[in-house]
Specification:
mainly alpha, Serine Threonine Protein Phosphatase 5, Tetratricopeptide repeat, 16 helices, flat, CellSynth/LPSAsmb/PSIAsmb, TPR-like_helical_dom_sf, repeat, TPR repeat, TPR_rpt
């Protein structure tokens, strides 16, 4: 198979949208979870809104509802509930952190930094606060200060997965790729069930075209996330990149077998087979 055709197959694997095939978070109410499992996300969101109207308004309630809405990919409304939680309880650190992380992802660094600083004033030794500050500093290219926050977090809680992720990301940003690989490999040993560490390590291996190592990590990831399609898609892409087309097809067929209710898995296989036929 010519390289250009192979590249087209890889592109298809990496661009076909994948939904979150993991089981719904236990934070969802039973009614919302039922709608979620039926694929009716709009009704699940309405179920959450109904809870807000039926129960006494408290910071704890609004935080719980915000968490549910994040699970249902309604980030805009989740932000409203996190803000309500903070307005009712100025000392609700978790609400501030969750809200600040969303703002960070949206590129609203000034607002996110304000929330992070407020959280730090209330809980200066909190690991999650330090990690958030580190991410914000990294986003503002203040790398040395970000390194300091990550290292302080790890001093307080060695092998914390999120602190390791931050530190590894900073190493990558400063060209210390092998150090990042070593750190992530060690972190996986200490946090074997934390998928994000393997996801980042696999992405590094793929970027470096170290396909055998990527295959190993992604296979492990499938083992700890058996209901997720994303690592299967990434594994198939890695196999294709290594010119192992038959093996990639086998991974996608197994995904359809293991995830019989996943429409994205079926779509991925159909798109792959169509591209293969035209190759």
């Amino acid at each position: 198979m010519r390289l250009s055709r192979l590249s087209n197959l890889i592109f298809i694997l990496l661009t076909v949208a994948c939904s979150n095939d993991d089981q719904p978070n236990q934070q969802l109410s039973e009614e919302a979870k039922r709608y979620y499992q039926q694929g009716d996300i709009q009704q699940a969101r309405k179920s959450v809104a109904k809870l807000a109207n039926e129960q006494t308004a408290t910071a704890a309630l609004y935080f719980q509802l915000a968490e549910q809405l994040v699970q249902l990919n309604d980030v805009t409304e989740a932000v409203n509930y996190y803000q309500k939680a903070v307005s009712l309880d100025n000392h609700h650190i978790q609400a501030r952190l969750k809200l600040a992380n969303i703002l960070l992802q949206a590129g609203k660094l000034e607002l996110a930094t304000q929330l992070a600083n407020e959280a730090f004033a209330q809980a200066p030794g909190d690991i999650e606060v330090l990690i958030l500050q580190g991410k914000l500093l990294a986003a503002q290219n203040n790398t040395d200060a970000a390194f300091s926050k990550a290292e302080t977090a790890l001093q307080k809680k060695p092998n914390d997965a999120n602190a390791l992720m931050l530190l590894a990301g900073l190493m990558l940003k400063t060209g210390k790729t092998e150090q990042a690989i070593s750190l992530l490999s060690s972190g996986i040993t200490q946090n074997p069930d934390y998928p994000a560490l393997r996801q980042l390590l696999a992405s590094i291996y793929l970027q470096q075209q170290r396909f055998e190592q990527a295959k190993t990590v992604l296979t492990e990831l499938i083992g700890i996330q058996p209901k997720a399609l994303e690592p299967r898609k990434e594994l198939a892409a890695a196999l294709l990149a290594a010119h192992q087309v038959a093996e990639a097809e086998a991974v996608l067929r197994q995904a359809v077998t293991d995830l019989p209710d996943s429409e994205p898995a079926k779509l991925l296989l159909i798109e792959f087979l169509a591209a293969k036929q035209n190759a």
